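Contributing new complexes? Match this layout with S-adenosylmethionine.
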Amino acid sequence: MARSNDFLTALGLSNYTPAKLKALSEELNIPTKRLLYYDEENVLPLGKDLDTIQEKRNISEIELMIQMGHCDDRILAAIKSRPDIIVPLIEEKSAKKRNKSPKKVLETSYGELYKSDCIDLLQQVESDSVDLIFADPPFNLNKLYPSNIDDNLKKHQYLSWSKEWIKECVRVLKFGGSFFLWNLPKWNSSLAECLNTYLTFRHWVSVDIKYRLPIKGRLYPSHYSLLYYIKGDKPTTFHPDRVPMDVCPKCLTDLKDYGGYKHKMNPKGVNISDVWLDIPPVRHTKYKRREGANELSVKLVDRVIEMASNEGDVVLDPFGGSGTTYITAELKKRKWIGCEIGPAKDIINRFERIEEEKQILNDYRSKTNQLFTNEVKIKRKKAGLWTCDTFNNQSSSQQ
Ligand SMILES: C[S@@+](CC[C@H](N)C(=O)[O-])C[C@H]1O[C@@H](n2cnc3c(N)ncnc32)[C@H](O)[C@@H]1O
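Output block (do not edit by hand):
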């Protein structure tokens, strides 16, 4: 469904020149900059601009919407009322098999890595065969990847491509399986619409990561979006980690007032929420495997895999990068399928040093599912602050 210059085309300016655009701007009394905004963002004008367009160009709102590829309840009702007319009009564009054979470049105890475009690989994967999908696609931020992919697509091209690989992911996901999509809020707000067509929404997890410099005239962007969807009405697997209670990093005192309820706190930790403040950005060169890549934190992927899969389950990640998902899945005894369109040597090298990764993962895991980590517990005891043992000891001395 590639859209291109749909707004201007609807107004009769398919191949416009600056002169033609200027003439249209004068005719409609709408600045050229604003006309280009409607066109590039594929945004329907509402308000005085729409009134003028309807009047001067003799085009109705519905017609403009349809020409721009938008749909509302009125259009949908009309379509639903006449499938006999609509269906034959639609050329059956069932995803054409590309017939490309992805090249296997790594096989491990649990997984297989292919050098391939993700859609080519997905087309080879059996329907309803994967338990968990985690996808971290390029964000279309004009970044230079080792694969030299075009990371500066037009909005409609990026969304159209995303919908194509998402649909293939949904096809291969088992009923009850989980789909996680990591992206900028800007893209996930649009992609959620596509996911809602096939899957059930569970959460929009905001992961606090200061990812850019402040932008003039904008709020400081400080979170990524992690969309969490299920195929079917409920997940086959859901066992989220519990996390340690927040304490002051310096004096280790409580940051919240738990009043008389401290003894009721679960010694296994606090329920994880849909705002994650504890995911480190992988910026430290000690951990970062590949210069310039958006390598994710093992902690993030570990949390997702732990929440939505069991040992022996199949995890698929269509965007290899430096292989964070594959390494984490391998260490957690999940079968995995992966691909990378660019060089795969970073992933292969990483598997050669998997023992280092094991330590990083073990370190994260040793800090989950407990109210206080050992280190914090010892320090709090020394400072005379309460720990779970305080209440255990009190209740045993009262017996
Ligand atoms: C954001 S990075 C993934 C990083 C990864 N999650 C990690 O932590 O290492 C996205 C990767 O997808 C790859 N890629 C882009 N388009 C692709 C496609 N069509 N098929 C497969 N891989 C693709 C890029 O080369 C890039 O390495």
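Reviewers usually confirm one structural detail per submission. For this one: The pocket of S-adenosylmethionine is lined by residues 117-118, 136-138, 145, 147, 149, 293-296, 318-324, 339-342 (CB under 6 Å).
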